[in-house]
Amino acid sequence: MAIYNAPLADMHFILNDVFKADQFWQNNEKLNHIDIATADAILEEMSKFAKNVILDLNRNADEEGAHFNQGTVTTPKGFKEAFAQYAEGGWIGLGADEEWGGQNMPKMLTVLADEMIFATNPAFMLYPLLTVGAGMALNNCASQQQKETYLPKMYTGEWSGTMCLTEPHSGTDLGIIKTKAEPNADGSYHITGTKIFITSGEHDLSQNIIHLVLAKTPNAPAGSRGISLFIVPKFLVNEDGSLGERNPVSAGSIEHKMGIKGSATCVMNFDAAKGFLVGKENEGLAAMFVMMNYERLSMGIQGIGASEFAYQNAAQYATDRLQGRSVTGAQSPEKPADSILVHADVRRMLLNVRANNEASRAFAVYVGQQLDITKFSTDAEAVKKANDHVALLTPIAKAFLTDMAFQSILDAQMCFGGHGYIREWGIEQCIRDLRISQIYEGTNGVQAQDLIGRKTIKNNGQFIAEYIAEIRDFSHTLDADLNLLKDKTLAACNEVEAVTQYIIEQAKVEANFSNAVAVDYLHAVGLLSFSYMFAKIANAAKDQHGEFYQNKLVLAEYFATKFLPNITARIVNIQAGSNLIMKFSQDYFTAQS
Amino acid sequence: MAIYNAPLADMHFILNDVFKADQFWQNNEKLNHIDIATADAILEEMSKFAKNVILDLNRNADEEGAHFNQGTVTTPKGFKEAFAQYAEGGWIGLGADEEWGGQNMPKMLTVLADEMIFATNPAFMLYPLLTVGAGMALNNCASQQQKETYLPKMYTGEWSGTMCLTEPHSGTDLGIIKTKAEPNADGSYHITGTKIFITSGEHDLSQNIIHLVLAKTPNAPAGSRGISLFIVPKFLVNEDGSLGERNPVSAGSIEHKMGIKGSATCVMNFDAAKGFLVGKENEGLAAMFVMMNYERLSMGIQGIGASEFAYQNAAQYATDRLQGRSVTGAQSPEKPADSILVHADVRRMLLNVRANNEASRAFAVYVGQQLDITKFSTDAEAVKKANDHVALLTPIAKAFLTDMAFQSILDAQMCFGGHGYIREWGIEQCIRDLRISQIYEGTNGVQAQDLIGRKTIKNNGQFIAEYIAEIRDFSHTLDADLNLLKDKTLAACNEVEAVTQYIIEQAKVEANFSNAVAVDYLHAVGLLSFSYMFAKIANAAKDQHGEFYQNKLVLAEYFATKFLPNITARIVNIQAGSNLIMKFSQDYFTAQS
Question: Do B348 and A519 touch (CB under 8 A)?
Fold first, then answer.
């Protein structure tokens, strides 16, 4: 019953008009194999696959779930065929290097392709997603031989990948992991320990599963500086690349979750499983962060996909649902009632969702472009600036985009009234599926700590200053007919700049300050980012003719008027600081009242 | 695994210290059968039942759900015994008139008892809840004979009740219902039609089910002025009160929902079922509103219960979960990590939940007291003022309390990290169960329309003016040591007063204005109400000794500093009005992008 049509026109607009992708690609010799027509064709192809294959499997995947039986995990009906088709289409390696069988497509394109699968079946998407992330980590840190052994088969989908970090007692705080890596005489290690919440830890979609595992070698330093990264394949790989003996790594159970039920979330037991060190000992966390940063941007895209799905279904429902009359008189007097789209409150909810979707999508492409610059540009200064941007904006992409998306799909659900609470319409599943995006890959609270601490206070605000300078420069180029957006964006720049300075100073004298205000700061920077995106969107639309472009201008104005002022509330919250929060004794929280 | 201890100390404090319940009860001859000691004893009894009986059934009820088989509905394991015990304890009639077998307890007490069952098993609570609501509607509008026939057996739990309003094409807009009532020669009617989303429409907990059904008689006026209310019993009742023949009313199916799965939500088919008119023809909607208003306050209490449950479990988890170190140095150096309660961001989330719970609970008791005044007071002026208050505050109690509670349990879930997403801890069920409270009994958007339209603009702001005057009067009595709370509450009074005036004026010239800004207005009035409650709480705590009372003062300050300023953001949103929202064509919303 659920519908989905990929927003191809908006995607084209963002790539072509907002970010001038063609020019960017054609001027870069590593990217000039792609032009906008090719990008459009790729996205159209993906949209068909999402709509015709993946969407149909979504509701059943939720109801059937993944199955666990004595260490074996079976994915829901249809996943195996769909995964084969996805792999066959070359989608796993869409953004991977040609050297390893990838298609070398820019990130600003792949984020849009990923959005479609996240929109139509997020549980399915997690299987290839973890493979791609593991591939990136290996590509960055593994030896040439390791790359040759693993990467090509991962990008064909013959093998898949995982990320094994969390343990029962150790989640955010990876410094206290207990999994051990004992060196063997042949240079390999024996890995022993239990990992939990391992997405795609075991399943029936690929012939082999390549686990990337964090573990501690004997005598490793305590804490996060003593963590190493290992490849632990489910089946050991013979020298000729064929599968050898089964490694003693197995799934002990799968979790029963609120959503993404088609995705197998496994407890993985490593019983002296053979592992191979990636990079140097004790440098595993940094290596893993390559993968984590990729996944974090992906979670933001999960948010966009879900919110787009929610929007389309809610807008269709609202159009069809007849209830009440317009306050200005019946709009459809021949019918028993008007469409609920006549009610301003219903429109308000839908516009909130839509404004979020368009700004989020533009932001994901923007961050994708920054990643492309870091990877493909030869201009050292541009690369440095892009690296700073990526560092600053990754927690925003992960946390702000998923927070906004979750709020959006709640609004979308409300458009359905009671019908939104029953399974039939797919919107309640969408909520259950999306909620995890705010939690996994580092909770959104942890993202906010990363933003305010490592990415802002630690460099004395340099990254955010560079970002604000760019936004200001751009805003100053806006024409007079975009004055509202220009003024509000510049005002937001000033507010965020001032509060950043305040945070840097206050953190010096109030120990718990940055921790207490981090989430508010993340949302303030997120709102500024959306304002920047709408300024870019409006600038790209303003001289073009037709309703499509005119509506973008009105939506940008809607955002600036109704959303953006929330920055002020965030700043007031920041000013309240940490003192009241820390005033309560620890016992207060659980003392019976 | 989930825990629950009813917050008896807080409940006692609110009744005894904040609202001086003893004095209120003892000074009223219809209520002087109750004193604070009796109230405490009743609440303690209910807390044991909630903790020892009802809580245990909660998770299974979610996993098992209600069963449907050829028109028969079976409730989850244990519900039947628990319902019998609940009925045996006299809980169904706790607030009902003694004349019909009730215990005549004041609403300000019953809201607290209800909270405990909503906290521990909301799906279970809906079975007695609908019975109580149906009883209230009958008590207000039915004939003496009808009351005698139905009410006593409903309060013993032998029979139960429902509310049959919604039809497939007709939810918020009841004016377009199609269910027909054809008069019979004997004065009864034949009711024919289909009702959906009927909570407890069919089940195995009682011997008979008394449906209250809205239907249209032949030649009834169009729209909501042509709706009549009927009693349609599942089994017709013989003159001696025994059960007669089965009426042709039956469940066609039950819904598969996001949550409250143990509650049977039925499609009810009426096939010329025998019905008995309640009150006068065409006055059914007003009669039903007695029940709806009761249910609406109850939904707010559902929110408090869920949020209290979520708080207790999250606080316990946060205490036990060791992860990371305090920024001021290890607090538990002997352990591998500190409790996550050392992190300000975790405390922030828990304090948000707690502040919401304490203000919400006080507000529910406050509204309960207003209802008690309308029912028990002999002072005509007091009754009139209380009636105005109830009219104004019912949509706040329903929508603001459930919005705040939902936000709270999301915060609580986040405290669990990944563990909050798996079933084991009960928090994800809590979210799924609570979400309906924002949707049913009139969506929160519809509540906001009621507040801004019928309750505010229509009377030219009289109700809100009376309410603000009361808050101001109270605030002026506050001592100097509560100056922060006093100043902020008075400032909030001024803000809400001014924006109300603005709304009344603007609504005259901007047709869609009130519809567009209603939700923001509801939240502004809600925040003012919470500020009023915290002013009352602080005033009751300030001269008392001990940590319990001191913590109330700090929490009140936390609210005033971190929550209350959101009023300003709401007002900015109100000022943005409806023009941009209405600027989009209807096609815009579904046009493919």
Answer: yes
Q: How far apart are CA B241 and CA B222, in angstroms?
A: 37
Residue A514, pLDDT score: 98
Best residue of A432, A580, A585, A587 to probe chain B, by most B CBs closer than 10 Å: A580
Decide if B583 touches A, using CB distance below 8 A.
yes
A434 contacts: CB under 8 Å, gap ≥ 6: A122, A259, A302, A303, A306, A307, A402, A405, A406, A409
Task: Collect all residues of chain B within an 8 Å Cβ-Cβ radius of residue A435.
Answer: 413, 421, 428, 431
pLDDT grade for A158, boundaries at 50, 70 and 90: very high
Cβ under 8 Å to B: A residues 486-515: 511-513, 515
Assess whether A167 carries a catalytic annotation. no
CATH entry 1.20.1420 includes domain A444-585: yes
- Give chain B positions within 8 Å (CB) of A256: 422-424
Report whether pLDDT(A593) > 80. Answer: no
Question: Among the options A167, A441, A497, A510, which is catalytic?
Answer: A441
A586:B339 CB<8 A: yes
The residues spanned by each domain of chain A are 8-42+54-144, 159-283, 444-585
Looking at 2.60.40.420, 3.30.420.40, 2.40.110.20, 3.40.50.620, the CATH number of the domain B160-282 comes to 2.40.110.20
Percentage of residues of chain B with pLDDT beyond 70: 100
Structure tokens at A477: 């180029």
Q: Per residue in A479-528, pLDDT tens?
A: 999 999 999 999 999 999 999 999 999 999 999 999 999 999 999 999 99
State the nearest Cα–Cα gap between A327 and chain B, in angstroms: 6
**Yes or no, beta carbons of A319 and B590 under 8 Å apart:** yes
B167, B295, B441, B495: the active-site residue: B441
**What CATH number does the domain located at A8-42+54-144 have?**
1.10.540.10
Q: Which of A341, A580, A590 is nearest residue B315 as measured by Cβ atoms?
A: A590
Percent of residues, chain A, with pLDDT higher than 90: 97
Helix (H, G, I), strand (E, B) or coil at B52: helix
3-state secondary structure B148-210: HHHHHHHHCCCEEEEEECCECCECCCHHHCCCEEEECCCCCEEEEEEEEEEECCCCCCCCEEE
Distance from C-alpha of B433 to C-alpha of B121, rounded to nearest angstrom: 9
pLDDT exceeds 90 at position A296: no
pLDDT (tens digit per residue) in B322-359: 999 999 999 999 999 999 999 999 999 999 999 999 99
Contact residues, chain B, for A557 at CB < 8 Å:
580
Nearest to B562 among A324, A443, A576 (CB): A576
Does the structure show a pLDDT above 90 at A289? no
pLDDT at A291 over 80: no
Residue A212 · residue A294 · CB < 8 Å: no
- Greatest alpha-carbon pair distance for chain B in Å reads 84
Of 3.30.930.10, 1.10.540.10, 1.20.1290.10, 3.30.2350.10, the CATH number of B8-144 is 1.10.540.10
Q: Which of A169, A581, A582, A587 to mutate to test the interface with B (most CBs of B within 10 A)?
A: A581
Q: Which of A332, A217, A201 is nearest to A276 (CA)?
A: A217
Mean pLDDT of A220-228: 95
Structure tokens at B553: 């003062």
CATH node for A159-283: 2.40.110.20
Q: How many CB atoms lie within 10 A of CB A44?
A: 13
Distance from CA of B314 to the nearest CA of A (A): 9
**Looking at CA atoms only, how far is residue A556 from chain B in angstroms?**
10
Task: List pLDDT tens digits, range B259-273.
Answer: 999 999 999 999 999
Q: How far is B441 from chain A (nearest CA, A)?
A: 9
ipTM of model over 0.90: yes
Q: What is the pLDDT of residue B62?
A: 98
